[in-house]
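Complex record, two chains
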Amino acid sequence: MLEFAQSQVILYLTIALTLFVPGYFMLLAFFDKEKLSLLERFIISSGLSILILDFLMLFLFRIGIIFTKTSLILTLIIFSFCCFAVYKKRFEKSLEATKRNFFLTFSSKQLLLIGLFIFLAIFLRTAYLQNSLPPSSTDLAHHMYWSKLFSETGKIQDYTQSDIIKENEIYQIASPRPISDFVIGEHLIFSAINLISGASFFSAFPVLIIFFINIFGLLAIFILSLQLFKEHPQNSNIAIFTLFFSGALFAIDPPQAKYIGGGLIGNMLGNLIIPLTFYFYIRYLREKEVILLFFALFFSMGLFYTHHLSGLIFLLTFAGFIIFSVLFNFKETKNIILGQKKILLSPLLFSFLIFALIFVSIIYTPTYLKNSAVNTVVGTIKKVEHTGLSLLQFRNILGEARFAFGFLGFFLLLFFYKKSVFKYSFLLLISWTTVIMLISLAPNLVKISIPSSRVANYGVYPLVLLSSFAIVSVFKKNVAEKDLTSSLTKKLILSAFLLLLAFTFLSGFDGSVFYLKQNNNNSNTQQTYAVGEYLSSRVNADDLLASDHIYLFADSWIKLFFMRDYYFPSFRANFERYENGIDKDEFCTRDMISNPGGELGKKCFSDLGTNFVMVDKTMDSTQFQKLNNFWQVYSNNEINVYYRKK
Amino acid sequence: MSIIVKNNSTGEKKIILTVIILLFFSFAFLAYSERKQTDPAGKNSWWEIYFENPKSQDPTFTIKNYGKDEKFHWKELEADSTTALQESDIFIQAGQESTIPLFAIGEKKIILEVTDENGEKKEIYKSLD
């Protein structure tokens, strides 16, 4: 118990050091206390720290410093100390600024609601995630393989995999080829936390970190909302409702807890960094201060080092934002664009542009740029899952309540647009929603080929903002009135509000209840881990393993026991991947398990030298038990392992 | 509405503290829950058997118990898989394992069958030719 408590304390201190401290000190160096409230500093520090940590680790790698506990802690401390020194030098003389502090104020009822929604957000996710541990999801395994590789080797490795190919009628393992599926920012934070805290990748720690990122993503939407609707008299209430629509409702549906447990790290990071990026752009447009543009650009750059899909969504939304701004707010936009010449010459921004150029070209170029993966995303759509969703599918992904309120909010925005003093908030929300809808529903129009349902999930956050705006705009005045008995109209409006709230609750919690009932598969996961431990301690570099991805639970985690190649062990994928003519062009991985005694199966075993196989004992053991050259060397409740005697 | 007010950060501090405290308890709960679930001596109900040397003809095998039932019965079976050549009971506590350095009697194939208290059987085998 003492050892457990100790490990937890170390983990939490590590989380504070890596995911809070560097960001906090950087904000301290650049913003005096009247520019950012305590809450904004707290929230922005998390996203900023992630990016700082990534850039620092990339820099360390480039100058040949190995990642160790000492090197990482020292680097973070030195960075934070430098920022603190800048803060002291810049602000020690400015006594006026240090006395004034910037606060966000909420009434006690509002604080209660905020507390309640945060509690619900965390509680529901915790209840669901309990069944996701120990980690078992495929995507998380893929990501943690790279994080573990960086930790073990102390440096960044190329993203490669070795496929099975057929050359001159012989099957063989090909030389490693570069892959573009991953972005470095998805892995470095986990490597850092593993190295500093010693937490195992097979423990709860990866899921806890993604959970942390998810919660701060909700809080980022909260402060973005406060900025977007700053002039609105019900600004605070709109922000509070964003916590309701994104945190409490649909707490488990994607992209919330299911994405946390599923290990969709890039999406989670994107959902934190995109709102923070927009936060700084909106503040810059409103306040016209260079430092705000600097941070906006810093976050934009960081996004492209974190998740390519999130970066693409941001880029398209930003492009849409500029187009809409030019079309509907031409005069003000023209003045801003023409004014950029002077701003770009400011030392801070000029330095940043040089920094970005050097970083991308010399320090580290994201793999999807090096491998020209962009070409695979733009152009004719080939894959079925990229061809767009129906409106019903789109609605189901976003949730009925959010869909309904969100589109009400969209039309209300259009209605209030002309009256608003600061138009950019509305233009951003309109372009954000429009871009997501276009790519999700009609990707052929924009020639962008990415999974439509994944894009639709990005629509959650703009719809959360729109929903909150809608519900507060419609009911603000009438529900706020204390004397409800004086007017039948007020009673009817209150009833309508409560009815809508009930519908929203039922709609939003329905999914949570469904997912919470799902079974805990931790026993299956442990048995897969046990096989990994058994085999990894008994095979050598000449032994090859084939595994099954269809029936085995958590099978992708086996690769972390061996750390030999991203594609080791080879695995039998879902059958349709061999049949669609796109995903799989070899059938060895299928036949070595489905038909080991058949002609192709035998040839594959012989050519590749595969001598161990792990399969579900109920579904796939029979075909091996019939063969004399396979020994059944391991058995637990779910899995059998066979050794092929040569 | 955001306003500048002197010395009134109480609301923000409360929100920050709420987030920190709730995350702390959630993380601690999840970490503890995961630890309990993966404890070999915990409330699981599975077990495993394996050859210590899967690639050689060495018949030494291990039973590892992750459940609460402690009594296991192992048998070496004849090649026809029905006649027991040798057998014995063995008691293994939850979270523990027992390695049996067997001297195999079978001539063509080693077949080992282990049964737990509930009658659940598992088998491992290797050929000797």
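Note: Residues 1-7 of chain B have pLDDT under 50 and may be disordered.
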